[in-house]
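Re: the multi-chain job from yesterday

Posting the exact lines I submitted so nobody has to dig through the queue logs.
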Amino acid sequence: MTDSKLTSQGAPSGFNWKPLVTNQSTILVAVILLLAGVFSAGSYGSFWDVSVFNNILTDWGLIVLLAVGQTFVVISGGIDLSVGSTVSLSGVVAGVVMVNWMHLDLNVKNEAAIGPLLIALLVCIATGVAVGLLNAFLVNVVGIVPFIATLATLGGGAGLAIIWSGGMPLQGPNFYGLVNPIKIGEISLSPISFAVLVVAVVVTIAGLFLAKARFGLYTYAIGSNSFAAKAAGINVKRHLTWVYVVSGALSGIAGMYAYTRLGSGSPSSGAGLELQAIAAVVIGGTSLMGGSGKMLGTILGAFLLYEVQSGLLMVGMDPNWKQVIVAIMIAGAVGIQGFSFGQRRK
Amino acid sequence: MKRTLRSLAVLGTVAALALTASGCAQGEKQLTIAFVMGAESDPFFQAMKVGATEEAAAQNVKLVWQGDPSHYDVATQVPIVDSVISTKPDGLVLIPTDPAGLQASSDKAVEAGIVVANVDTHTEDTSKAVIFITGDNGDGGAKAADAIANAIGYTDGETYQVVVGLTSATATTNVGRLDGFKAQVAASYPGIEIVDVAYSQSNPQTAASNVSNWLTKFPNLKGIFAIDGTNASGAAAALQAKNLVGKIALVGYDAYPANVELIKAGVFTALIAQDPAEEARQAIRAIVAKIRNNEDPASHDVVIPNVTLDANTSAADLTKYTYVAN
Amino acid sequence: MTGELIYEVKNVSKRYGSVVALDGASLKLHAGEVIGLVGDNGAGKSTLVKVLSGAHKPDGGQIFLDGVERSWESPRDALESGVETLYQDSGLAPHLTVSENVFLGREKYKKGILGWFGFLAKKTMEAEAQEDLEKVGIAFPSANRPVSQLSGGQRQAVAIGRAVSWARKVIILDEPTNHLGARQAGEVLQIIRAAKAKGLGVIFISHTLPHVLEVTDRIVVLRLGRIVKDSPTKDYNNDTLLGTITGTIQTIKVEGD
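And the result, structure tokens for all chains:
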């Protein structure tokens, strides 16, 4: 803080990682490790298998895209319920484009599928952006509260996904290798797949923009006090439009991720995911009141959700316990927020 | 072209049946029949809608198709059913998402003079419904057990690990199929051990995730019974992603076009198919006969058998049983 | 003591539905001058502040800055022209740090490609915020603390410091001494004097009449949306000012009415 020369030189040592890390994140890491221990004991060690982490990360890759977009929206003081149906809708649109328009089928496999999949990715992002623009229009121009506006697009998106797919999964070209661990030769190097790697890069960039750039600062400012933000000369409506567009675009990428995972554009692939995404955000320590939250918390929160899902299955517990455990974690996360806020005010 | 021919054939049959059933359909007042199904996003109901629409047109019936877009859930279905009843249709085809939860609404409809039919699943007391039509879920489950045993080359004295992917613990179709599967395993294949079950909550992603985790937990897994279309899609994706096609027997349910394709690709050992369109046709026919001629169906509970589709099934049969989208 | 005319509104009015909030108000502000704007609740002070700061567009009347007629489309418009406003109780974002609040809307960016993407030079801003606040007489242990961790008086000091350090011509302070203790209020009045010495035109809105009498050069009294008196501060004492506000003292209509 005292030496401004360091930053003006842009030296890496001057890079401040502190805002990325909060107490909540430390607690989440502890919970993740604790649960790993419990699941490991319950499954006689098989929880530590690399492929378990591949499974968790594969699930994580989808939900974290939604949760990252949701983090921006929630910090800005809004909520985006449409993300789940945007996954279904964009996945279906990807299927329609490849199957019905490009006339490709599931025999287009592996490397040959990369071209069509890239085109489909662009179409998915465009679909997500369109949903985001519609949300922003309803919130900013029509003046509907975000909860209701995005509830409407949630229903509309789900309906269109069913209509355009005829209610059936659209099976088209795919490269399942993208969701499998990256291999060099025959040796699997890590539990990380190419798709998860791409998601990790996207999530890191989004996290940096939230913590370090004007985009994030304005998001916090609007969620904290939109009147003050406006008085400071921020174009609040334009910024909120961008926030919903980012959430939509990330949901579109998630739609393509779901397509690659299933090998088809399924109208039910996003069912219920909006609640998972919001759960990840809340467990990660972001306040639903807006103005505060950290991307690292969201990333860990999403991981925790799927660690629990995989862990319960590995241990052989009734999977319905997942909902109970997630509920406890949400209550705990909100409790910690209230506690640390109270401490600070003293 | 094939589809057109098939539709024509269906229409012809339907028309003939309609004439024999109701004497003369022409000149009759148009009836309104509400059809409340489980979840619009489920291809099973899409296929059912095709049958219902065809039959309604043939019988001079106005069809009101209703249901939640994506959640197969009693909480969302009850208000839909209640608001449909308040519009006073002549008949109601109801696919209850929960046997107890929909009983009150069903009774209310009967009291209001609406003729009720249950399709696929039923309320606790079906006596006031004019007909209950379902695929034989127990028989379908048994057929799935046969298909898995056949695919893994079952021999007595060996043990085989098998898992079952479900959508929910309470859906009556899921329960019926699982019971049939377990009964058949107990009776004929004692060496098959059902080591785990898990729920997909109507999302194929969750189904895929469950199967991926099983593949890790049970390295010697021999077979997977995916109890409905959603689980079948998810399980097929997981096996393809892990390059285990052909190494683990996968028996699915519901003839989604995408999944029928995957029989040919060897991903599915077999698919157990229902005939949802036929269920819908028979339900509408029974309601129309009751209202126009006060005729009760020959039998109150109608069971439409399931069929096993596999690599040996003829192309014509595959086409016949594949669910058709609107 | 006071310089050129810098900010002027002529005959502005504003109605919300059938309610006339402001009825033909006129006001002149000179460089290095502090005007007190007083009136009872609902007299139209907040509306006049919003018109002056660009938050609301008047239904009628004219606004001149440096003799040029202006029409503010947004607060940003007014800000960029040098008119800074501190709003009553809501000027800061509590979750942001002191320096983030001071620089909000006018951030400094990192050099090179990162800056092009909007990455912020946080350390530079923290150092400069500290410096700017010290210049107007506010000392802080650290500019990277969230505003929510500050006391009410500290928050107000940050808000005023922010406004004073950015203002180039005019600064509008809406109830800056509200909820403050005597010592903290005294510090705020000191900042107002510093702003005046800097040559800024200051509009000071307050209910606390002793503060108004202490720091202003001229006092404008609003009642029921109209300006009923506009005289040098020496013409008032506590009682006559109160009487003018409540209407128990009859006022001669001011010029232009």
